[in-house]
Amino acid sequence: MNFKINFKTKKMKDNFIKALIDQKESRTGTKINIHFPLRGDISNYCIELNREIQRLTKSSIDFSPKSFQIPHLTLYSGFVTNENNFNSILNEIYELAQEMNPIEITPTRPILVKPKKNYIFIHTDQSNQINELKRDLKDRISKWIQPLGWDIISEAPHISIAYINNNYEEIEEFLEEYHIGSNWYGDSIEVSYSGPWGSCLGSIRAFEFP
Asked: What value does the CA radius of gyration of the chain take, rounded to a whole number of Å?
């Protein structure tokens, strides 16, 4: 039986591979992101907000259907150098997920992060609880993952909505009037390849809470 190559599918695959190849090479290894995935209403909210922002200016973070980037709330990120280490990380995340209960998360209004005004973040009222989880996760996997060049644990938990380079005042005014998203639950931990500007490229594996 002869099979014809679907060139649209091949282009999609090539674009995904290119996104991985374009990862910053500041360290040896593959950069991964471990996070709460966003689902349901909050996912749709982030996708729509990202689309509205891109009507006003270009964003390097893109949640449109043609993009591989997905909304998420980062718990940890770093570089993995070999398959054995990656498997150990996945096993530790699975064990942690089995000990967890869903966390109800209250989002804040989206803001343009100062002073540089490039990132648009949504923070949460559950920062202390999520930071405890971030520290626990780091302690469990630190021997198998190379850390980033900055302290991801002390950073306030957030969802990255966009990364912009102009139209700051217009975007800030737009965000001040934009409605706040609904509460959602962190009920699984997902692992993805990291993309540009803190984005996640699809999903490698998700571990559901019991």
From this structure: 18
Q: List the chain pLDDT tens, one digit each, 210 residues.
A: 443 444 444 565 576 566 655 655 545 688 999 999 999 999 999 999 999 999 999 999 999 998 999 999 999 999 999 999 999 999 999 999 999 999 999 999 999 999 889 999 999 999 999 999 999 999 999 999 999 988 999 999 999 999 999 999 999 999 999 999 999 999 999 999 998 899 999 999 999 999
Tracing tokens 């990202």 back to the chain, one arrives at 50
Domain of 134 in residue numbering reads as 31-208
Task: Specify the number of domains making up the chain.
Answer: 1
* CB-based contacts of 43, cutoff 8 Å, min separation 6: 71
